[in-house]
Amino acid sequence: MRAAFVFDQDRCTGCEACRIACGIENGGGRDLAWRQIHTLNPAHHPALPTKHLSLACNHCERPACLLGCPAAAYRRDTETGAVLLDSDKCIGCRYCSWVCPYDVPRFDEALGVMTKCTFCSHRLAEGKAPACAQACPTGALSHSARPETSKEPDLLGLPSLAFGPALIVKRSVASETEKTATLSHGGAGLPRGAQPIPKRKILLRSEWGLVVFTTVLPFLVAWFAAGLLDPSSSPPALVIAGAGGLAMAVSTLHLGKPFRAWRAILNPKTSWLSREILLSSGFLAAATLARLFPVESSGTRWLGIGALLAGVGTVLAIDALYRQIPVHPVAGPRFDAAETWLTALFLAGIFAGSAWLWLPSGFLKLAFSLSRRRRFDDLETGTPRWLPPWRKLLLLLGCLAVSMPGSEPLNHVLGIALATAGEVLDRCRFYLELEPVSPGRILHAAARGFLPVRHDVHLPAEAL
After folding, report:
1. Where are the beta strands (DSSP E) in 148-305?
2. What is the CATH number of domain 3-193?
3. Chain mean position to CA 186
4. Every domain of the chain and the residues it spans
5. Once rounded to an integer, what is the mean pLDDT over residues 254-259?
6. pTM here?
7. CATH 2.40.110.10, domain 208-442, yes or no
């Protein structure tokens, strides 16, 4: 039987019996955090009602975790419909937790792999209810057969992303009224601290390896592209292989299982992470070979073109990878100055000394940066801005001034150094502000006066 969870918020008291039962059934008494209780207005502020949301994996029809996993560690149980994770195949990249809007996959620090709710598929196979549903004392949580066609559940805290979650929400007139009151309580928001800020999933100090990778690869692609126009300025083969190989090696340090990194190429059909690794490996190999052989050779020219295409594919895959992560709209637009294709275009213009490249792309980057919505800092209290707009403007103008065609070589090198420094800072800012949407963050945003809206997430074509 393909099953679905049924949740009645009017009956939920937030007692956490479901969470405890899950730990007993699946973790031998250890709290696995596979089911979580999200609470709106836990301080009972009179401006908002207090509501609870019991949530675990929704075992979606189009699961973001399964589609995004590069290691092909996820599978679906055809009998129960449960989306299951094989920890022996997991590389611990955490990407599944980034793309899941329900904050479901959990990283086990001790094992170095992800874990998640199994829908108690072993119990479903025996005709029993999941442990969490069976333990609910108020009947707020239960399970039933999954309907043939079901609409997206409409409940404050649940983003609408067309993933097809196996979750049926019971609504009442009273709860609809309270939801309307919650979304229109004035927009001023509760005092800071009235609604706790959920713990962040993405931290710059833990993802510095990704900062290195997503900075070095566009840099090398831009340098190599400029070298195709002027072979005398092409990067040496040793630099391409050494810097690129080191960046790829460093990027594996954020994995829970670095020695399983090879598995990251196993799901190119739906995972942009697999595509990114395959394309970047192809670029580094082809670009290195193209620089080892004489430039005059026709074979070298074709190899160079192939390397350039793989490089362009690499920067586009990096951008597509991060656009898969659903973020709250107040965090800013999904398309901004941190786009690596724009970075590669800007740097290629500086390397080549071409104003036709660096001038429009540079000011486009500046425009995107200045237009970013600044409510993020109000929502994410305490998040620093490493590069204020006025400083970025000065840095960009300095880069443009010293990188003019015909400038002295020393000035040209200085321009490249300044532009690269600006990109590193901008990439750090990108990771500082990047945080996936989750039920807890939506409830926190609602309490702060930011109205949740439908999110824009691009699903792989194979998922639709």
Report:
1. 167-170
2. 3.30.70.20
3. 31
4. 3-193, 208-442
5. 93
6. 0.86
7. no
